[in-house]
Amino acid sequence: MQIHSTAIVSKKAKLGQGVCVGPYSLISDNAAIGDNTVIGSHCVVEGNTTIGSNCRIFTGAVVGSQPQDLKFKGERVFLEIGDNNIIREYCTLNPGTEEGGKTIVGSNNLFMAYSHIAHDCRVGSYCVLANSGTLAGHVTIEDRAVVGGLVAIHQFVRVGKLSIIGGCSKVVQDIPPYSTCDGHPASVFGLNLVGLRRNNVSKDSMQALDKAYKLLFNSGLLVKHALEKVEKEVNLTPEVSHLIDFVKTSERGIARSCRKAN
Predict the structure, then answer these.
(1) Does residue 24 belong to any structural domain of this protein?
(2) Is 116 part of the annotated catalytic residue set?
(3) pLDDT in tens, 167-203
(4) Second label for 106, Cα 20 to 30 Å away, from 92, 130, 225, 244?
(5) Catalytic residue, candidates 52, 96, 101, 137
């Protein structure tokens, strides 16, 4: 364990083996930091925050400070961060906002400089938030999603697995899995073919997803009727089944196609 002489680390904090804390950083009473995690200079880790192993937290990041929510009245809330995450300069990650509330972050994510994860969010694993990507409260990001720089995501929106959102987009409805989206508000441009190939999704499943996407976003059908056709006419691979479940459980509605139906 290496703690710089200028760092302030509570005696009540729990630090694993090999943890490094840089100059002028502050670690508060209820923090728990896993083995071999490196915290840079001028960082703050406070609140009921758990950070996993092998994470890297860069200069000026503030992790676990109270939520930016006017309803918050000092309840006991939590932030849980998994392993192998990279949290770059000046990122902010907040805990939940109601008694017992949690913000949960998976493992192997990259949060670029100035990105923000608000209260009660759920972020999966292997995700990327580019510079100044901003999640409002109660946002869910599924595994392997990519959020472009300066993207703002509305409260309670879900971003589906293996989707990618172009920079500077305004996201007010759910982003379907496996999609490429962009715009104000964000609209669906098509499948994230590069992401699908990189993650070894089978050719058969990619073809099935392509057919499902054409029915859902380019047929002019109501979502309900498009889903019925997808379930009857498309090979229900695991990816297609996940897409169907995601659309069916949407509460804010699904981002629409950027293209007009023929």
Answers:
(1) yes
(2) no
(3) 999 999 999 999 999 999 999 999 999 999 999 999 9
(4) 244
(5) 137
Contacts for 148-156: CB closer than 8 Å, 24+ residues apart: 149/112, 154/252, 156/251, 156/252
Q: Is 213 helix (H, G, I), strand (E, B) or coil?
A: helix
User: Annotated catalytic residue: which of 22, 120, 138, 149?
Assistant: 120
Entry pTM? 0.96
Q: Is 29 a catalytic residue?
A: no
Residue 127 lies in a domain: yes
Residue 203: give the domain boundaries.
197-248
Tokens of 2: 């290496």
Residue with the two structure tokens 């100035």: 114
Tokens standing for 176? Answer: 């379907």
pLDDT tens digits for range 163-175? 999 999 999 999 9
Same domain, 209 and 117: no
Write down the catalytic residue from 82, 96, 106, 119: 119
Q: Token pair of 173, please?
A: 């409805």
Answer yes or no: are the C-beta atoms of 171 and 151 closer than 8 Å.
yes
